[in-house]
Design goal:
This protein is 54% helix and 9% strand. A hairpin with a 5-residue loop joins strand 4 and strand 5. The radius of gyration is 26 Å and the shape is elongated. Bound molecules: adenosine-5'-triphosphate (ATP) and magnesium ion (MG).
């Protein structure tokens, strides 16, 4: 089962991961580098992290490495810490079907628990894609490949191991993973693997919201968000994770705003600039929020209340699908709230706004809205100039606004008060 493989470059292998494999092997256990890191090594890329598979049980692994911790509820794995680097060590696991009963499956075929140790072979077949089921023994410099994964990596193909439909039913997140890998590696999804995805998207509704939040981060915040978003649409998956977002695409420039936000996020990641999920969620949910706020206002709810209720409602509804930790929902509200304050620039307001801790995010968001086609009367350009000006220039810009006493502004004020 050993494949003759193009030599993996040792330069790309973490010495800490090698230490872990070595230690396990000299203690009499089987140990391999496995999963994404082997795939990436074959592709000549530097893996972002290293996973180790072994027949040693978690407690035994824990005992071998002082710098290690047992983690995980669903399946206990060991994290071996080397400064900031973590090498993840997992014990061979049986595919859910091998040793467990029907009762471990939900009606739809989803795995409810898979906490069963297994053999090397079982560990291979419980993995998702052939390209992720390659085991590398650094000592022998050999890749163990039971699923023709090397061939698929070379051909640039994403192929589920086993029957694609049952593998998607077992764990619907695999559909998102297929899309993510396609976006990231620019591989194709082999037709039999792609086939059930559109049909089974609805199963994502059964996935815990916290897990889907993690998947959202991996899809949209790792540098190829635009591509991942396009694929979510192509495979009809967006509606199962962002139903309100998907719905407003018919009547609002939702798609344009999201695309603009993701282009900006991808660019920032490429330039090693910080990014936040709050910004992504703020853009996915902006038009659902605007729609809800409008609806409330039409019912006579006042401006400020409508803002609060709409923000709360839209965020709460989204959290049924993907959780959004509180630290991000607060920032989303700030970004949204500032959209209504940025137009009001008289007196010392502009001066104060520009020092608001979320000003920059809100200003960036404003530009995206304009990019999406919202006509904001040149507001983005005004704020761009404002930031570039010295104090005198800033005063000029404020003075050039229609005065607070003008007809237009009084009318507007009246309207704002309701
Ligand atoms: P990345 O480079 O994004 O880390 P990865 O392939 O290493 O990619 P992980 O999420 O780190 O992905 O998972 C590690 C390995 O665990 C995978 O390569 C795969 O073998 C297995 N795996 C992960 N998630 C699943 C899943 N949902 N079903 C089956 N196997 C999985
Ligand atoms: Mg990984």
């Amino acid at each position: 089962m050993t494949e003759a493989v193009p030599q993996l470059s040792y330069d790309n292998i973490s010495t800490n991961a090698l230490k872990v494999v070595n230690r396990l092997a000299t203690s009499g256990y089987q140990a391999y580098l496995v999963g994404g890191c082997v795939r990436d090594l074959l592709l000549g890329k530097v893996p972002k992290d290293f996973d180790v598979a072994t027949d040693a049980h978690p407690e035994d692994v824990r005992g071998l490495f002082r710098n290690s911790r047992l983690i995980g509820k669903r399946f206990r794995i060991v994290h071996v810490h080397f400064g900031p680097e973590i090498v993840e060590v997992a014990t061979f696991r049986a595919p859910h079907t091998a040793r467990s009963h029907q009762s471990n499956h939900s009606d739809g075929g989803m795995i409810l628990s898979d906490n069963v140790f297994g053999t090397f072979e079982e560990d291979v077949f419980r993995r998702d894609f052939t390209m992720n089921a390659l085991y590398y023994d650094p000592e022998a410099d050999a890749i163990y490949d039971l699923v023709e994964g090397v061939k698929d990596v070379e051909a640039g193909q994403i192929r589920l191991i086993g029957n694609p439909e049952s593998r998607c039913r077992e764990d619907p997140v695999r559909m998102l993973r297929a899309i993510r890998f396609r976006a990231r590696l620019d591989f194709v999804i082999e037709p039999a693997t792609a086939e059930p995805i559109r049909r089974l998207g609805f199963l994502l509704q059964d996935i815990p919201a916290a897990r889907l939040f993690e998947e959202v981060l991996k899809l949209f915040m790792t540098g190829y968000g635009v591509r991942a978003y396009e694929l979510m649409l192509e495979y009809d998956l967006l509606a199962w994770m962002f139903p309100d977002t998907r719905r407003t695409m018919e009547s609002f420039p939702t798609g344009k705003l999201i695309r603009a936000a993701l282009v900006s996020t991808d660019n920032r990641i490429a330039a090693s600039m910080p990014v936040t999920p709050a910004f992504i969620f703020a853009s996915f949910l902006w038009y659902p929020f605007v729609e809800e706020k409008q609806r409330l206002e039409n019912e006579g709810v006042t401006n400020i209340e409508a803002f609060q209720i709409a923000a709360e409602t839209v965020i709460a509804r989204q959290q049924l699908f993907t959780s959004i930790p509180r630290r991000f929902t607060g920032m989303m509200r700030d970004i949204w709230n500032l959209q209504f304050r940025l137009p009001v620039r008289h007196g010392r307001r502009a001066e104060r706004l520009v020092t608001h801790k979320r000003f920059r995010a809100a200003y960036d968001f404003l530009l995206l809205r304009e990019e999406a086609g919202e006509d904001l009367n040149g507001l983005g350009k005004w704020w761009t100039e404002y930031q570039e000006c010295d104090e005198e220039g800033r005063r000029q810009l404020v003075r050039s606004l229609p005065g607070p006493g003008s007809q237009r502004s009084r009318r507007r004020k009246k309207k704002e008060r309701g």
